[in-house]
Amino acid sequence: MNLARLAVVVLIGLSLHAGACRAETVRLDDSASQVFPPNAYWEWAPGSLRSTINTVHMDVRVEVRIDTKAWAGRQGRIFMVLPVDAGGPVTAQWRTQGRLLGGRIVTGERALVFSGRIPGPYLEDSLRVRLTTDARQMTTETQRVAFHFELDTP
To answer: Do 82 and 132 form a contact (C-beta atoms < 8 A)?
Structure first.
């Protein structure tokens, strides 16, 4: 085998090995989190009833408590995930008290809320969340919006 061919074989082997060492994604336990109020209602956006705008929104406070015991002290990136459901697309925007990052997400996406060394057994913060959707897209009067958190480890 000549030297050039050996180099190609080694490079292919290294790239296959690097692919096998990719980050792992784990769904985190956030069952200790609480939403206030627990049963919130969609409200029409101001001016919606007098116009052709069909936007409804809901404001909630979420006391987030994510179990990170198994990853405490390790580097990681935590994402908020808003899965697609039977209703139309929902947008969530949130502000935090500072432990997690504020942001915006649409159903079917995930958004970074923490990056760095995981500080301890629980990651906690208080989020002010505004959910927004088009009332014409809603399949029922009640629509469950259930986001969760995922951890990517290097």
So the answer is: no
Q: Predicted confidence band at 15 (pLDDT cuts at 50, 70, 90)?
A: very low
pLDDT in tens, 46-102: 776 667 778 889 999 999 999 999 999 999 999 999 998 767 789 999 999 999 999
Task: Write down the domain spans for the chain.
Answer: 23-153
Angle at 78 (CA atoms; ends 76, 81), nearest 5 degrees: 150
33-42 contacts: CB < 8 A, separation 24 or more?
33/62, 33/63, 33/64, 33/65, 33/66, 34/62, 34/63, 34/65, 35/60, 35/61, 35/62, 35/63, 36/60, 36/61, 36/62, 36/63, 42/133, 42/135, 42/138, 42/143
Share the mean pLDDT of the chain. 83
